Structures are given as C-alpha cells and as structure tokens.
Design the sequence.
C-alpha cells in the first residue's frame, strides 16, 4: 500500500492535534510532521518532503500564503491544501495564486478530509467546484486584473482554450467529455496539454488563470 506523507500546519495546538489524530486512523496516511507557524512549516517540509501539507492561512511569524509559496518554490511533488474558517476569505484566494491545490474548511468532516488528501496526493486539484469556483470568481471580480489574456494563452489551440473555459466552470473530465462529445481520454490529453503549455501545476491554478486573464468573466455564462 502506498502511504501518503502529511504535514499539518496550524497555530492552534488543539487543531493540529485533532487533524493529526484523524489522519492517523487511516492506514494509507502517515503524519510526518507538524508546525505552529509558516516558518516552521517550511523547515519541516524541507526535512520531511511530504506529499501533502494541510496549511492554515492566518499564522504568526510567516503566514500560510508565504509559507505555501516557499514550500512550493523548493520543488518536489509536495502539494498544499489550505485550511480556513471561512469559505470566502481573500487570503484563500492569495494562497491559490501562490500555488495551493485547493482548500478545506476547518469544520470539514473526517471522510471529506480523507478524500481530499487522497485526491490531492494523487496529483489532482481539490477544486470543490461549488465553493472554490465561487471564491475565485468573487475575488477576481473585486480585484483589478490584466485587461487582456496573457501571451501564454495564445499558445493554446481553440479546442484547448475551450477545455480551459470548461475547467474554469468546474466541470470534471467526464462532464467535459460529454459537453464536447469526445472521449474522456481525449479530454485528459487536452487538460494535460493546457497545464503544460501554461506552466500550471493543476486545475485549481487553471481556474485562477482563467479568471485573472479575463477568459472567464465573473457573472458571465459560466454562472
């Protein structure tokens, strides 16, 4: 059995202990470290090279946004899931921009937590379309963004651009396949090429870019 190595980061000891205890009940999880602030998180991640980091946003010394940026800048396959109290939190959006693979509310159920860690560890993004898409769209609307799509979008074919739009709507690969009337393997190929051409880690970053670039307009047809 493949074991997912996890680091839990939160400035509240009781929260760290609770998440660690829950995760330890799963035979395919191993909590290999914990940290009370972002600076400690970076050090622990450099030592342990975890697969997944559960990262609080609001912490002393170094906050979760900067810590996420530093952890991902070190390279490797570590993925970060943001822990937050509120689903519409501007700091969560900043963390997604910094490269986080998604977010979870701190009152998440145990089963949802386990599923989320497995999804992210497998290399997918924890989009939670109904919530994350709304969050990204809201803060893209409130912020001043680039007036036109970045040059990198011009490297996409018309079909790849269409796939990016559908990713930004929160559609899964089977749903995109049904919308475009193509096979799911074809969609997987398109998604892989989109991420590769744009230099993105996962679908969450694709959603952020789609809104920031103006490819998707908050309040537009996708909603």
Sequence:
């Amino acid at each position: 059995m493949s074991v997912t190595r996890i680091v839990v980061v939160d400035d509240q000891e009781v929260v760290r202990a609770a998440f660690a205890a829950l995760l330890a009940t799963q035979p395919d999880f191993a909590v290999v470290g914990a940290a009370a602030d972002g600076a400690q998180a970076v050090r622990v991640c450099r030592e342990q090279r975890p697969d997944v980091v559960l990262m609080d946003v609001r912490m002393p010394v170094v906050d979760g946004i900067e810590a996420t940026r530093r952890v991902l800048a070190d390279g490797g396959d570590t993925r970060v899931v943001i822990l937050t109290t509120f689903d519409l939190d501007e700091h969560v959006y900043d963390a997604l921009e910094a490269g986080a693979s998604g977010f979870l509310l701190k009152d998440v159920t145990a089963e949802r937590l386990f599923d989320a860690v497995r999804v992210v560890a497998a290399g997918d993004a924890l989009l939670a379309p109904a919530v994350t898409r709304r969050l990204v769209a809201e803060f893209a609307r409130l912020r001043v963004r680039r007036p036109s799509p970045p040059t990198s979008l011009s490297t996409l074919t018309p079909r790849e651009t269409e796939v990016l739009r559908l990713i930004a709507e929160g559609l899964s690969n089977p749903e995109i396949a049904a919308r475009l009337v193509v096979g799911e393997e074809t969609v997987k190929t398109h998604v892989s090429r989109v991420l590769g051409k744009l230099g993105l880690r996962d679908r969450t970053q694709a959603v952020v870019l789609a809104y920031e670039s103006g490819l998707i307009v908050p309040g537009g047809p996708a909603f």
